[in-house]
Amino acid sequence: MNRQRGVSSLLMVLLLLALGSLTLQGLSRQHQAQLSLVGLEVKALRDGANADSLLEWGRMQSWDGLAPEQCRQVAALPGRLCLRLFSDDAALLMAGSGEQLRWWSGSVQNGRAHFDAHGWSDFCPRREEAQCQLP
Fold this sequence. Notes:
Elements lengths: L1 H59 L8 E4 L7 E6 L4 E8 L2 E10 L2 E10 L14
Antiparallel strand pairs: 1-2, 2-3, 3-4, 4-5
């Protein structure tokens, strides 16, 4: 009888070890999934901050000799910055970094681009979305 009790105790310990191992594996998978989501969120926040910085830098630049579309890049920031002019003397400054895009509306006055004080937008401010795409 003592031998049977020893085997059953051993089986109980092995069963607890197996259940604990399965639980830890499940928790590890959940942790990896959450870690992946955090990485994506960090990238989106970084790209958004870069797009905002590009846009602010572009607003402070002198955009003379206005062509319908012109783009600039900043060595310190990843992404693109472009100015698009429209026939109604409207101007749209566009910045993109990764998948994040930002826009700043303005107008052309005396051959120079001027940007509205509250023209910032994180959605396309034009009726036709194609006009908001970076060239």
